[in-house]
Design a protein that fits this description.
heterodimer; A: 263 residues; two-stranded antiparallel sheet; B: Rossmann fold
Chain lengths: 263, 288
């Protein structure tokens, strides 16, 4: 049951989208977000939606998988839509008792909804097609100029990849401990808030203990292999831009420029 | 002997409807008899763990039924917790589930969840600790201060304390040294003998299974491959090896001797039996 949650889950594949350099994909996502936030006209939104559909097609990610990513933020989307719908001043479109919907309100609500939906789906496309390792590799490489400012970029990237690496492990562990406590009659599903919080103790204590144990073991293992930070460290997979990366970047730059210019 | 648990045509599919879907258990039929010591053996990935999580209702069958005393355990899904008290399940590496401040409180977790009186809980904790070979002095210690083998026994005591009619142990000796292994099995044997309750021991060590159980179920590729007394199962040693499973070392010696022309029953599975068989051969003068 816990295994079903999608937390930036990677779908392995061998499509052009998977083969893109992770740095390219990070930049594409960034450009897409900029384009989304500068979009004003309906045409711009349509173009952006079309871009998403085409990209998903290329990556062979199903619409179902993309929509599933939306589920956790559904409430936020609904909330923003309702707020914008009723609280935007402007020309009245419809009125009932103390509720008033304005023409501008309806417009903003629709825009906000499409904006958040596309934003979430776009970033999900990134994590669906890029493995966590590639992602942190790309991030480290993109942020490396900040090393000049004495920012520990490598260490941050390492922390991130370790954290990402252990999410599935911890989920599996949680599942196991939960089953073991259920087998002893623990009840995680019924009772009031306080009872439920209390019921979590038999789950959380073993989980913390094992997380610390794992961290300890990992630290020892890293030290045994003489890990000492990023200084002088070389990569097994060196990131290299290919023609497709330049092509994708050029297309998305055009899209973003168009979106800004058409305001 | 009557059946206490019947598994009827059980199929379990993980991640149904995704590219990762696979059947961990396929059309499995199985019965567990009241009071027996049953061994379940199989390779990693043969469906052992999935099967036993169905016995106490932690997993719900994708297809098929689990009958406990003739009643479908999922007939009333709300009552599934009471099934868990009747079929006690000890997971693999159970020491990682300990959480209380003292050993006593941890063992008491199960019985307390059953809603028993304080006196009854106390009696059960002490009895369970004795079965698991834990001294009274350990009860007030923190479970995190114990050795690995002791932690494991605390976790097993935590399930025994619920006094389940069926005790299921998933690889209880994994990761223990030979002495700890033998000690733990001796405690489990004593528990079975004294209480007369049903015990199901899951393992991939043939030696362990051979020396302890009355009946063996062999799983392979999500199905039941064979079922019977240790003698009957080990007589089919060649088939077992084909399924990628081992037979006890003694059985392997007997099989090799037989291949060289000695008239030895290939189903012997203890050192004593083989010794007796060889002595009998020598007396009979049939040796080569």
């Amino acid at each position: 049951m816990l295994k079903d949650i999608t937390l930036g889950q990677y779908f392995p594949g061998d499509t052009p989208a998977h083969r893109l350099d992770p740095r390219t994909k990070l930049l594409l996502t960034l450009l897409y977000i900029v384009a989304l936030f500068s979009a004003k006209s309906v045409w711009a939104y349509l173009a952006l939606a079309l871009t998403l559909i085409v990209s998903a097609r290329i990556a062979r990610v199903s619409a179902k998988a993309l929509l599933r990513g939306l589920r956790p933020v559904l409430i936020i989307i609904a909330f923003t839509a309702v707020l914008n719908l009723f609280y935007t001043p402007g020309r009245t479109l419809w009125e009932f008792w103390r509720l008033r919907i304005t023409y501008e309100g309806a417009r903003t609500a629709a825009a906000m909804m499409s904006r958040i939906t596309l934003l979430i789906m776009g970033t999900f496309l990134l994590t669906y097609t890029t493995s966590p390792i590639q992602l942190t590799d790309g991030l480290e490489s993109l942020l490396s100029p900040l090393k000049k400012l004495r920012l520990p970029v490598h260490e941050l990237a390492m922390m991130m990849s370790i954290a990402l690496r252990f999410i599935p492990t911890l989920i599996e562990e949680t599942d196991k401990i939960m089953s073991a406590q259920k087998a002893r009659g623990a009840d995680f599903e019924s009772g009031g808030l306080i009872r439920r919080a209390k019921a979590l103790i038999p789950l959380l204590v073993p989980l913390f203990v094992s997380a610390f144990r794992r961290a300890d073991e990992l630290a020892t293992a890293m030290e045994c292999r003489c890990y000492h930070g990023g200084e002088g460290r070389t990569k097994l997979h060196v990131l290299r831009f290919a023609a497709r990366d330049y092509l994708a970047l050029a297309l998305f730059l055009l899209l973003t420029a168009g979106s800004i210019l058409l305001r | 002997m009557e059946d206490i648990i019947r598994v009827e045509d059980l199929t379990h599919t993980y991640s149904a409807g995704t590219p990762f879907c696979r059947n961990a258990v396929e059309h499995m039929d199985l019965s567990i008899r009241r009071g027996e010591f049953l061994g379940v053996i199989g390779h990693t990935g043969s469906g052992k763990s999935t099967l036993i999580q169905h016995l106490n209702g932690l997993l719900k069958p994708t297809e098929g039924r689990i009958l406990l005393d003739g009643k479908d355990i999922w007939a009333e899904p709300k009552q599934i917790r009471s099934v868990r008290f009747r079929v006690g399940l000890v997971f693999q590496y159970p020491e990682y589930q300990l959480f209380e401040e003292t050993v006593y409180k941890d063992i008491a977790f199960g019985p307390t969840n059953m809603g028993l009186s304080r006196a009854e809980v106390d009696a059960r904790v002490r009895a369970a600790a004795r079965f698991a070979g834990l001294s009274e002095a350990l009860l007030d210690k923190s479970p995190f201060a114990l050795s690995g083998g002791q932690k494991r026994r605390v976790a097993i005591a935590g399930v025994i304390a619920m006094e389940p009619e069926v005790l299921v142990l998933d690889e209880p000796t994994a990761g223990l040294d030979p002495q700890g292994r033998e000690e733990l099995l001796a405690h489990i044997r004593a528990y079975h003998k004294e209480r007369g309750n049903t015990v199901v021991l899951v393992s991939h060590s043939m030696e362990e299974i051979a020396r302890n159980v009355d009946r063996i179920v062999v799983l392979a590729h999500a199905r039941v491959l064979m079922e019977g007394t240790p003698r009957a199962v080990f007589a089919r040693g060649a088939e077992l090896m084909q399924a990628g499973l081992d037979v006890p070392q003694v059985t392997r010696v007997a099989m090799a001797l037989r291949d060289r022309g000695l008239a030895i029953d290939p189903a012997v599975y203890t050192v004593e039996e083989l010794a007796a068989a060889l002595l009998a051969l020598r007396k009979g003068g049939a040796a080569c």
